[in-house]
From TrEMBL, chain A:
Gene Ontology annotations for the cellular component aspect, listed alphabetically: plasma membrane
Matches recorded under InterPro entries: Bact_Polyamine_Transport (IPR051789), MetI-like (IPR000515), MetI-like_sf (IPR035906)
Gene Ontology biological process: transmembrane transport
CDD domains: TM_PBP2
A Pfam family this chain is assigned to: BPD_transp_1
Family stated for the protein in its record: Belongs to the binding-protein-dependent transport system permease family. CysTW subfamily.
UniProt topology in membrane: Multi-pass membrane protein
Cellular localisation: Cell membrane
Protein name listed in UniProt: Unannotated protein
Species: freshwater metagenome
Annotated transmembrane regions: 12-35, 70-92, 104-128, 134-153, 182-203, 237-256
Chain ranges of the ABC transmembrane type-1 domain: 66-256
PANTHER family: PUTRESCINE TRANSPORT SYSTEM PERMEASE PROTEIN POTI (PTHR43848)
Main localization (coarse): membrane
Automatic annotation (TrEMBL), chain B:
Presence of keyword Nucleotide-binding: yes
Family matches, as NCBIfam families: potA
Protein name per Swiss-Prot or TrEMBL: Unannotated protein
Pfam families from the UniProt entry: ABC_tran, TOBE_2
Signal peptide boundaries: none
Length: 262, 379
C-alpha cells in the first residue's frame, strides 16, 4: 500500500531519472573509459589511470585529426554564420519577389539525406576537377550549416519588436547606427547560438566529410577508422572534453543571459 | 544631422495629406494646423487614421499625397532621424539591452553630444525616477517605463513630441495620475505635444485642442468644451460623452432661436448651435443637462412630456434614468443626487425639461447612432 502510494507521488521523478539515465549512459561510459589503462584497444576495463588525460595526443594521429576538425569547424562556422545571418535578415526583414520560395528552399538541405548530399557533392567536385580534401570539406560544411543558421537567426529576428528599431530611428540613429546599436545587440544571442550549432554540426559530421575529404583525416573519421582495431582511450578523452566544453558554454550562456535580464 | 534645438520651430502643418494602403484609405485629404506649444489630441476610434497620421509626422510612414511642415521646413519625405520630432511609443519601446540611463542618453549621443550626464540627470529628476538610472527597462513597472519613455523623448527638446496612446497599458488609477502629470510636464517644458488616443476622457483632461477623427477625416476640431457643448456631427456628439438625439423639423424662428417640432411638442434651439442643412434636424441634448420631475409639474424652458421611466440606476453621485418617450425612443437622463428627494422609480410618468441654450441641432439625415457603438467597444 505504502509503496504504491510512494510511486504515485514520485512517478514523474522516477520517469525523469530513467529518462536521463537512458540519455547519459553512453556519455558516462565514454567518460569512464577515458580513464581506462587499456593501451591501444579500449574495449575492456583494465584499470584506472590519469595517463590518457595527461597526454591526450598520445595515440598516433589523434590530435592531427582533431586539429583538422577544429580548423574545418571554425572556418565553416564563421562563413556559414555570416552568410546565414545575412539571409536571415533578408528573409525576416524585407519583402521581395520569391521570398516564400526562398524560405522553403532553405529547408531543403536539412531534409536531404546526408549520404545523397555527400555523394552528389563528391561527383560535382570531381566533375569540376577539384580533388577531395580540406577546402571541399569546408565548402560542403558551410553549405549544410547555412540552413541551420538561417532558421535559428530568423527565429530571433521574428521575436524582435520592430518598434525598437523605429524608436532608434526616431531618436536620431540613422540606418547603420540603428543596426549597430539596437538590432545587432538584440539579435546577437541568436547569432551566437547559430554559430555554436554550426560548429557542433561541422565538428560532428562524418558522412558528408567521408565522401569529400580524400586523405584528410577529421576526428569523426579517425574514430570510425580506429574502431575497426579498437578506439584508443585518447579518443574518449577528447570526446569527454568536448562534451564538458559544450556543457560549460551552455551553462555560462544561461548565467550571462540571466544576469543581463536582471 | 537634425538640430532639434533651434532651426526648425513653429506650427505643425499637415496639408492635404492622404495615406493609402492598397485599396484602403487610412487618412483622407487631411489638413490640420497644430499651433506651437499646444497640447493637441487626435481622438477617434481604432482605424480612424489617427495613428497613421502620427506615424507620418514621425517619418515612419510616407504620405501618398500631400505635405507636412514644421514652421517653414517641409519634412514630408525626410527620414525619422532627420526630424526634430520624438515619439513616446504605445508600448514604450525602451531598449531592453540598455540601462535606463543609456536609454535616455540614446538620442543625445546620436546627435553627437558628448556630455550627456547633466541633461539625463535633470530629466530623470523631472520624471522623479533618478534612483533607477542603472536598472534595465524590464525591471521597471509599467508606470515607471512610461515615464522613462517620456523622459527619453523630451530630453532631446524636440519641436514636437508625439504620444501614441501613451497611457493605454496602465491601469485606471495610474492613468488618471499620469494624465495630470503629463499635462504638468507639457506646461513645464513648453514643447508641442500631439497626443493620439481613443479615450475621450483622456483627451479632454489633457488637451487644449482636440481633433475628432473618423474614417480618415477630421470630424470636428476645437476646445474640449466646444466639442462637448456644440458638436457638429452625430459622431462627435456620441463619441465625446453621450447624447440624446431626437428627430425633429424646424417650424419657424423666434429671435435667436429655431422653433423645432419634435413629435408634436415644440422646443427651441439657439441658431449658434444649429448645424442643420435644411428643416430636418436631430435635436441634441446631453443627459446631465435634463431635469426630471413627476408628470404634471409645471416646468420652464424646453419641455417634453409623456415620458415613463423604463429604468433607473442609482450610482451614488447621480441616478441614471432611461425614459421611454411616447414615440418609443429611450432618452437618457443623469440626475445629481443633491436635492434630498428620493429618486424616482421605474414606471413613474415624468416630464423632462432643460435650458434651451444647452440644445444643439444636427443635420437630420445623419445616423443618430454614429460613433456610439465604436465607443462602447473601446471602453
Amino acid at each position: 500500500m505504502r509503496i504504491t502510494w510512494w510511486f504515485r507521488k514520485n512517478l514523474i521523478r522516477v520517469y525523469m531519472v530513467l529518462g536521463f539515465t537512458y540519455l547519459f549512459i553512453p556519455v558516462a561510459y565514454t567518460f569512464a573509459f577515458s580513464f581506462n589503462n587499456g593501451g591501444k584497444s579500449n574495449l575492456v576495463w583494465k584499470g584506472f589511470t590519469l595517463g590518457n588525460w595527461q597526454n591526450p595526443c598520445g595515440a598516433p594521429d589523434v590530435c592531427l585529426a582533431l586539429g583538422n576538425s577544429i580548423r574545418v569547424g571554425l572556418i565553416s562556422t564563421v562563413a556559414a554564420t555570416f552568410l546565414g545571418t545575412l539571409i536571415a535578415f533578408a528573409l525576416g526583414r524585407h519583402q521581395f519577389k520569391g521570398r516564400s520560395t526562398t524560405n522553403t528552399l532553405i529547408f531543403l538541405p536539412m531534409a536531404t539525406p546526408e549520404v545523397v548530399l555527400g555523394a552528389s557533392l563528391l561527383a560535382m567536385f570531381l566533375n569540376l576537377g577539384i580533388n577531395p580534401g580540406f577546402w571541399p570539406v569546408v565548402i560542403a560544411h558551410v553549405m549544410f550549416c547555412i540552413s541551420f543558421v538561417v532558421v535559428t537567426v530568423k527565429a530571433r529576428i521574428a521575436s524582435l519588436d520592430p518598434r525598437l528599431e523605429q524608436a532608434a530611428m526616431d531618436l536620431y540613429a540613422n540606418e547603420f547606427q540603428t543596426f549597430r546599436k539596437v538590432t545587432l545587440p538584440l539579435v546577437a544571442p541568436g547569432i551566437a547560438g547559430a554559430a555554436l550549432l554550426a560548429f557542433s554540426l561541422s565538428f560532428d559530421d562524418f558522412i558528408i566529410t567521408n565522401f569529400n575529404s580524400g586523405t584528410l583525416t577529421t576526428f569523426p573519421k579517425f574514430v570510425y577508422v580506429a574502431s575497426a582495431r579498437g578506439i584508443p582511450p585518447q579518443a574518449n578523452v577528447i570526446g569527454s572534453a568536448m562534451f564538458f566544453l559544450a556543457l560549460f558554454i551552455v551553462i555560462a550562456g544561461q548565467l550571462v543571459s540571466r544576469r543581463k535580464a536582471r | 544631422m537634425a538640430d532639434a534645438s533651434s532651426s526648425t520651430r513653429g506650427d505643425l502643418r499637415i496639408v492635404n495629406v492622404t495615406k493609402s494602403f492598397g485599396d484602403f484609405t487610412a487618412v483622407d485629404d487631411l489638413t490640420l494646423t497644430i499651433p506651437e506649444g499646444s497640447f493637441f489630441a487626435l481622438l477617434g476610434p481604432s482605424g480612424c487614421g489617427k495613428t497613421t497620421t502620427l506615424r507620418m509626422v514621425a517619418g515612419l510612414e510616407e504620405p501618398t499625397q500631400g505635405s507636412i511642415h514644421i514652421g517653414t521646413t517641409d519634412i514630408t519625405h525626410s527620414r525619422p532621424y532627420q526630424r526634430p520630432v520624438n515619439t513616446v511609443f504605445q508600448n514604450y519601446a525602451l531598449f531592453p539591452h540598455l540601462s535606463i540611463y543609456e536609454n535616455i542618453a540614446f538620442g543625445l549621443r546620436r546627435r553627437g553630444i558628448k556630455d550627456v550626464k547633466e541633461a539625463v540627470d535633470k530629466i530623470l529628476n523631472l520624471v522623479e525616477l533618478p534612483h533607477l538610472a542603472q536598472r534595465k527597462p524590464l525591471q521597471l513597472s509599467g508606470g515607471q517605463q512610461q515615464r522613462i519613455a517620456l523622459a527619453r523623448a523630451i530630453v532631446n527638446r524636440p519641436a514636437l513630441l508625439l504620444l501614441d496612446e501613451p497611457l493605454g497599458a496602465l491601469d485606471l488609477k495610474l492613468r488618471r495620475q499620469m494624465q495630470i502629470e503629463l499635462k504638468w510636464i507639457q506646461t513645464e517644458v513648453g514643447i508641442t505635444f500631439v497626443h493620439v488616443t481613443h479615450d475621450q476622457e483622456e483627451a479632454m483632461t489633457m488637451a487644449d485642442t482636440i481633433a475628432v477623427m473618423n474614417e480618415g477625416k477630421v470630424e470636428q476640431m476645437g476646445t474640449p468644451a466646444d466639442l462637448y457643448d456644440n458638436p457638429k456631427t452625430a459622431f462627435v456628439a456620441n463619441f465625446l460623452g453621450q447624447s440624446n438625439l431626437i428627430e425633429g423639423r424646424i417650424e419657424g424662428n423666434d429671435g435667436d432661436n429655431h422653433v423645432v417640432d419634435v413629435f408634436g411638442q415644440k422646443i427651441k434651439i439657439n441658431k449658434n448651435r444649429s448645424h442643420a442643412k435644411d428643416s430636418s434636424v436631430l435635436a441634441g441634448i446631453r443627459p446631465e443637462k435634463i431635469r426630471i420631475q413627476p408628470a404634471g409639474t409645471a416646468m420652464s424652458g424646453n419641455v417634453l412630456t409623456g415620458g415613463v421611466i423604463s429604468d433607473a440606476s442609482y450610482i451614488g453621485v447621480s441616478t441614471q434614468y432611461q425614459i421611454e418617450m411616447p414615440w418609443k425612443q429611450e432618452l437618457m437622463v443623469f440626475e445629481q443626487n443633491d436635492d434630498g428627494v428620493p429618486p424616482l422609480e421605474k414606471g413613474d410618468p415624468v416630464t423632462l425639461s432643460w435650458e434651451p441654450v444647452f440644445t444643439f441641432a444636427l443635420d437630420g439625415r445623419e445616423d443618430a447612432f454614429a460613433g456610439s457603438e465604436v465607443h462602447a467597444d473601446e471602453e
